[in-house]
Amino acid sequence: MSDIYPVPAEWAAKAKVTKADYEAGHARSLDDADAFWLEKAQRLDWLTFPTKADESSFDEADFQVKWFADGQLNVAANCLDRHLAERGDQIAIIWEPDVPTEEPKRFTYKQVHAEVCRFANVLKGQGVKKGDRVTVYMPMIPEAAFALLACARIGAIHSVVFGGFSPEALAGRITDCDSTVVVTADEGRRGGKHVPLKANVDAAAAHTPCLKSVIVVKATGGTIAMQDGRDIWYHEAAATVSADCPIEPMNAEDPLFILYTSGSTGKPKGVLHTTGGYLLWAAMTHEAVFDYRPGQIYWCAADIGWVTGHTYIVYGPLANGGTTLMYEGVPNWPDASRIWQVVDRHDVEIIFTAPTALRALMKDGDDFVAKTSRKSLKLLGTVGEPINPEAWRWYHDVVGEGRCPIVDTWWQTETGGAMITPLPGAIDLKPGSATKPFFGVEPQIVDADGKILEGATEGNLVIARSWPGQMRTVWGDHERFFQTYFSTYPGKYFTGDGCRRDEDGYYWITGRVDDVINVSGHRMGTAEVESALVLHPKVAEAAVVGFPHDIKGQGIYAYVTLNAGEESSEPLRKELRDWVRTEIGPIATPDAIQFAPGLPKTRSGKIMRRILRKIAEGDTSSLGDTSTLADPSVVDDLVANRVG
Ligand code: WT7
């Protein structure tokens, strides 16, 4: 039996969404969807209010994802301009630097508006127009948020690439969507280290013929090379442009951004989100999940390079007239108190972070928490991976001193925002469960054949109908969009996650059921790591699987077969790890590499990953049936030479 943490009385009394609101609202959102959503859409500022809400279909014959299609609006106007009259002098963005002895920066809505207009004019000066793609490869500095909103203002499509990705990974993402402009900084800073962002862009640019200009924000003042005719300093260009820039009227279905994410096969996919439905989902979930009211200091400790940063650092909070904190650094530098010191410094009321960060901090001991006050905290959030009940209780009891509910939000890059999540004034909590579906979300659990399983059960998680924040396509490959998400279980969106539903109708995400590994809350495709490994001249073949990791949730375990005549060695192991870091980025670095003379394959040549997973997990007693293998003896060698 799992414990239940009931909604605290003071939350039940004054929550934005109460238990009754949730129950009635969720039923209505499914039974009378169009009316429900047209009513909710009124929270945004439209140039033309839509007459229809959902026109989506998951069936192959008339497949499309489409919301509010005849409405017109601008995202930047919704996040900034409409707040100016009422809260122009309120702080919109607080920026906390990497180095704790440096001063934070604060920007009012008026100031952010002016900065965004300038940035938009600088982009225009580089020839950027509505529909053009702008790649943003930035550290966690305010200009990153300004750049996103500037794109939105003029109708350009931003594609943010996480600053931890390598030049190769960056180049692939620039060319896939034909970006003409990259916005970057001289260097980034994280945990006292400098990241050579501009140098990485220079290296990427050797493979990106579409790239015409690089806009460089001076962040650290580190030495970099500037290429004449291609590179411009942001501060120089910004000094010459106006702090006023008209908004571009956008149709609700015009693209807002592309964000690349890993899948089980092939190259990373450019997930496309559009304007109206995405913004509504961002704003509505941000308000309901965090019970957010303007004036509250809210901190989402993600990086802007991931969807969490898009939806819950920038678009959701600003659409709601909120104060959003952007932190440049990492949770445990200079030491494991840092995150809580930032909370105290800014009187943060709501914090949103990942289980992996909590597990790492928990390991460093309670003293780092206990010596901070945290009295401002009211609500705690998590995202990115299943949270183990032990980490949940530590967050609740030690960090929140028992007084703050935890919202464990399940969602994906594809879903735009939270999908299965507690609402703190409406839903009793169970540690480790993302609890119940948000308004408009119709989850189902199906078996391998697609049969809908009722009641308390376990299987694969699908969503039976569209919701406003859903991705619209894979950039440049609509067929791949359909194949990836809608062909496994016809008529339904397949999440790729396994899930259990308990007797109270609570959902418990059990993790990916496809070949995707969740490393520290970040998604990594096994196929991507394998492709990187086989690019190495000494590698003949590679198979990559996930294995349980105390801090990261899952680690990366690689089986590598060398070319004939090559010798395995410790230096080669290190070389291969470094190779993957260079090819993809540090987050893809294998935790373990096992040299394997052969891989377990069926007679038709398919690698049996089930066996590789078991061995990586150290569970070698129950390898199951190996009789269908072309050469069962390879398994003995794999077991004998397991790393770990
Ligand atoms: C995958 C999506 C959601 C934004 C950050 C990650 C896993 C996410 C939870 C949660 C259990 C979770 C799922 C999902 N996941 N949140 N609260 N509980 N699992 O976005 O990179 O698109 O990854 O993260 O496996 O499919 P992403």
UniProtKB/TrEMBL annotation:
Required cofactor(s): Mg(2+)
Protein name (record): Acetyl-coenzyme A synthetase
- Asked whether the UniProt record includes Magnesium among its keywords, one would answer yes
Q: Where is the AMP-binding enzyme C-terminal domain?
A: 528-606
**Which key words are in the record?**
Acetylation, ATP-binding, Ligase, Magnesium, Metal-binding, Nucleotide-binding
PTM field: Acetylated. Deacetylation by the SIR2-homolog deacetylase activates the enzyme.
Q: Which positions are annotated as binding ATP?
A: G384, E385, P386, D408, T409, W410, W411, Q412, T413, D497, R512, R523
List, alphabetically, the GO terms of the cellular component aspect.
cytosol
User: What is catalyzed by this enzyme?
Assistant: acetate + ATP + CoA = acetyl-CoA + AMP + diphosphate
Every copy of the AMP-dependent synthetase/ligase domain together lies at 81-466
State its role.
Catalyzes the conversion of acetate into acetyl-CoA (AcCoA), an essential intermediate at the junction of anabolic and catabolic pathways. AcsA undergoes a two-step reaction. In the first half reaction, AcsA combines acetate with ATP to form acetyl-adenylate (AcAMP) intermediate. In the second half reaction, it can then transfer the acetyl group from AcAMP to the sulfhydryl group of CoA, forming the product AcCoA.
Q: List, alphabetically, the CDD domains matched.
A: ACS
| Residues bearing the modification N6-acetyllysine | K606
- Give every Acetyl-coenzyme A synthetase N-terminal domain span: 22-79
